[in-house]
Amino acid sequence: MEDTMFLEKIAQTVADETSKIIGYQVSIADEKGYLIGVNDPARFGLFDKLSLEVIKQKKMLHWTPRDVVDLPGIFPGSSAPIIVNNKAIGAIGVIGKAEE
After folding, report:
1. How many CB atoms lie within 10 A of CB 31?
2. Which pLDDT tens digit goes with each residue over 19-76?
């Protein structure tokens, strides 16, 4: 099974279970930056250009309220790439104050 297909199959479960453990909302984006695992169903399928930036740069980034002011449905927090076989296949984000 292709890595990206695998991510699509587990994204929602990973987002839900991780959120329960850490106490913060979690989102997972596919390799094109679309949310495929989210705690708020209204956000499913949203394009998250910040996650796409994380995927392109292959590094963890942090977003402040100022960074997301013009991005409806996107929230401040931290996001890291999901890398398999040296390829960024998506990103996982944790919603909250970047300083936390």
Report:
1. 19
2. 999 999 999 999 999 999 999 989 999 999 999 999 999 999 999 999 999 988 889 9
d(CA 48, CA 45) in angstroms, rounded, equals 9
Q: In one letter, which amino acid is 91?
A: A
- Please spell the DSSP secondary structure of 3-49, one letter per residue: HHHHHHHHHHHHHHHHHHHHSS-EEEEETTSBEEEESSGGGTT-B-H
- From first CA to last CA, the distance across the chain in angstroms is 36
Eight-class DSSP state of 99: T
List, edge to edge, every strand of the sheet that includes 61-63: 35-38, 26-30, 87-95, 77-84, 61-63
Which of 94, 68, 66, 99 minimizes the C-alpha distance to 80?
A: 94
